[in-house]
Design a protein that fits this description.
The complex is a heterodimer of chains A (about 110) and B (about 120).
Chain A lengths: L2 E3 L4 E5 L4 E3 L2 E3 L5 E7 L6 E5 L10 E2 L10 E3 L8 E11 L2 E6 L3 E6 L1
Parallel strand pairs in A: 2-11
Antiparallel strand pairs in A: 1-4, 3-8, 5-6, 5-9, 7-8, 9-10, 9-11
Chain B lengths: L4 E3 L2 E4 L5 E6 L6 E8 L3 E9 L2 E5 L6 E5 L5 E5 L8 E8 L10 E2 L3 E5 L1
Parallel strand pairs in B: 2-11
Antiparallel strand pairs in B: 1-3, 3-8, 4-5, 4-9, 5-6, 7-8, 9-10, 9-11
The chains are: A mainly beta (about 110), B mainly beta (about 120).
């Protein structure tokens, strides 16, 4: 079974402070990990995926297979980063895919 | 190119009724997945369709069903609605050929309220 845990439901930081959103997973195979973001009144959208090794809007995430974690980090938070963040795992299922989401972390960046 | 679209955006139904939701994927995408989002359970996978065939299924009762048409558009049906079916139903599309490496693109959702 695949499972994703985001231990913090709410996270509040000040503008310019570093931010880290935690994500832990359990999966027996080799997973693909994603971070999705949902801004207020907008649709769920992909922020980044580990296979791309990109930095999007200053966010990065490193897959740590030993600790089964995929934490999202940004060195200097901005007010526009306030949103709901979901960590998701995709495991191969009969040639298709299904995303398993964590419970989400509501990030608030205060001025 | 146009994103994933879902209709209707809002629905109000009463217990016992049935409902059909529609999803149009991004042009060229052949896989459509459905998710249920509730405050208590979060985002949960319902099922995935690819080339008009259900390829994956989550742990939902048989009251939840779907189908996909030859143009990749998909519909989801919920019969005998219960109060607990009140949720935001999200549709996501992808090319459907890269397995777990696929990026799924989400629609705005249909908000269903069951009274």
């Amino acid at each position: 079974a695949q499972r994703v845990t985001q231990p913090e439901k709410l996270l509040s930081v000040f503008k310019g402070a570093p931010v880290e959103l935690k994500c832990n997973y359990s999966y027996s195979g080799s997973p693909e990990l994603f971070w999705y973001v949902q801004y207020s009144r907008q649709r769920l959208q992909l922020l980044l995926r580990h296979i791309s090794r990109e930095s999007i809007k200053g966010f990065t995430a490193d897959l740590n297979k030993g600790e089964t974690s995929f934490h999202l980090k940004k060195p200097f938070a901005q007010e526009e980063d306030s949103a709901m963040y979901y960590c998701a795992l995709s495991g191969l299922v009969t040639s298709g895919s299904r995303l398993t989401f964590g419970e989400g972390t509501q990030l608030t960046v205060n001025p | 190119k146009a994103g994933v679209t879902q209709t209707p955006r809002y629905l109000i139904k009463t217990r016992g009724q049935q409902v059909t939701l529609s999803c149009s994927p991004i042009s060229g995408h052949r896989s459509v997945s459905w998710y249920q989002q509730t405050p208590g359970q979060g985002l949960q996978f319902l099922f995935e369709y690819f080339s008009e065939t259900q390829r994956n299924k989550g742990n939902f009762p048989g009251r939840f069903s779907g189908r996909q048409f030859s143009n990749s558009r998909s519909e989801m049906n919920v019969s005998t609605l219960e109060l607990g079916d009140s949720a935001l139903y999200l549709c996501a599309s992808s090319f459907g050929l890269a397995g777990e490496k696929e990026t799924q693109y989400f629609g705005p959702g249909t908000r269903l309220l069951v009274l």
